[in-house]
Specification:
This protein is an alpha+beta fold. The chain is 23% helix and 47% strand. It has 2 helices and 9 strands. The strands form 2 sheets. Strands 1, 2, 3, 4, 5, 6 and 9 form a 7-stranded antiparallel β-sheet that branches. A two-stranded antiparallel ribbon has the order 7-8. A hairpin with a 4-residue loop joins strand 7 and strand 8. It is flat. The N and C termini lie far apart (66 Å).
């Protein structure tokens, strides 16, 4: 299975692989420039979704071209009222070609032992009853 990442650009998410091409909302970079994209999820041998681990993921793309999307025609009307409005819209787009998709091998995150993960939940649960008991004592004394 080849590695892939889900990246975020312009408030939208895209699934990309190395060598893939995608259309995103217009970026300020010039044609031929390299752009670093923010990964939301990465999968190679394992799935990486933690924010700290995703900082080590490198997704780089080259700006292939700037173009405009197809014209979208908007027509509003209300029957028998003489109300008609016509408008159009074309999106400004950028075509990106993904050139690099990898996670730094030297800094791959180590899996946490399950014993450590369980301790945090038990500590939180243990502190809540004590806080409630202290609040009841204050109410009784007032």
């Amino acid at each position: 299975m080849s590695a892939y990442a889900v990246i975020e650009s312009g408030g939208k998410q895209y699934k990309v692989e190395k060598g893939s091409s995608l259309l995103v909302d217009r970026l300020s970079a010039k044609e031929g420039d390299k752009v670093a994209l923010r990964a939301v999820l990465f999968r190679d041998e394992e799935v990486v979704a933690e924010p700290q681990a995703l900082e080590k993921v490198k997704v780089e793309a080259k700006v292939a071209e700037h173009l405009r999307g197809p014209k979208i025609k908007v027509f509003k009307y209300k029957p028998k009222k003489g109300y008609r409005r016509r408008a159009g819209h074309r999106s400004e787009l950028t075509r990106l070609e993904v050139t690099e998709l990898k996670m730094d091998a030297a800094r791959k995150p180590a899996a946490k032992p399950k014993a450590e993960q369980g301790d945090g939940a038990e500590k939180k649960a243990a502190t809540k009853p004590k806080a409630k008991a202290a609040a009841k004592k204050d109410d009784d004394g007032a």
